[in-house]
Amino acid sequence: MGRKFFVGGNWKCNGTTPEVKKIVTILNEAEVPSEDVVEVVVSPPFVFLAYVKSLLRSDFHVAAQNCSVRRGGAFTGEISAEMLVNLGIPWVIIGHSERRLILNESNEFVGDKVGYALSQGLKVIACVGETLEQRESGSTVVAAQTKDIAVWAIGTGKVATPAQAQEVHFELRKWLQDNVDAEVAASTRIIYGGSVNGATAKNWQHNQMWMGFWLAELPLSWSSLTLSSLLQ
User: Fold this and answer.
1) 8 Å CB contact between 193 and 127
2) pLDDT digits (tens, 9 = 90+) for 188-197
3) Binning pLDDT at 50, 70 and 90, where does residue 94 land?
4) Taking CA atoms, which of 172, 174, 215, 217 is between 20 and 30 Å from 13?
5) What's the rounded Cα separation, in Å, for the pair 106 and 4?
6) What is the mean pLDDT of residues 58-75?
7) 107-134 tens-digit pLDDT
8) Contact present, 34 and 67 (Cβ < 8 Å)
9) Residue 206 has what pLDDT?
10) Cα angle vertex 77, ends 76, 81, to 5°?
11) pTM to 2 decimals?
């Protein structure tokens, strides 16, 4: 089964209505290959999900940045998988490094959230990786994180070298082959998300091992031409 190239943009907790409209306009004007070649997914804050979906071109898709571990109810501030399905949002990010580190989401908790989201029909962008401290100390945590789901230096601005990223990529795909099966290992898209921006995206765009990347900046200053060049 072939793996389609994936390009995502996580807007995190950023944006106003005018800014979001400007970004969507840039996206809509970009010249990109067909959906058969590349899959483009953007992830605005929850309050803008429906707005972005209503304006965004039909060949691009929208992801939520998180969802609850269980069905809705008395959970103040949570967003359930069922709500996302009801809104027609096909994707959700789960296990982002910021939620692991700041909100103390454990591997087991992230795994439970992934399982529940999948059971409700959502497509999941499951995040695994190392903190900068873990990487520099020689500790690798990807296998443990992946096991509960069945960041190299994310958010620091420090980007892995291709060799360092390849090491983690190999470990993750080998874990899938050894613990799940060869078909899953071959078909799973592993995308890079360590402080990728317009200047560093090219490093991953033409790297045959990686099947995509996450942009870590709000592209307010970009033009449709800038975006088009990244998606070719």
Assistant:
1) yes
2) 888 776 556 5
3) very high
4) 172
5) 30
6) 94
7) 899 989 999 999 999 999 988 876 667 6
8) no
9) 54
10) 105
11) 0.75
Query: Can you read off the two tokens belonging to residue 109?
Result: 């908790």
Proportion of the chain above pLDDT 90, given as a percent: 39
Tokens coding 160: 């892995």
Position 29, amino acid: E
Within 8 A by CB and 6+ apart from 64, the residues are 43, 46, 49, 79, 84, 89, 91, 92, 93
- Radius of gyration in angstroms for the set of CA atoms belonging to the chain, rounded to a whole number: 17
Question: Which residue is listed with tokens 């969802």?
Answer: 67
Q: How far apart are CA 111 and CA 200, in angstroms?
A: 30
Q: Identity (one letter) of the amino acid at 139? A: S
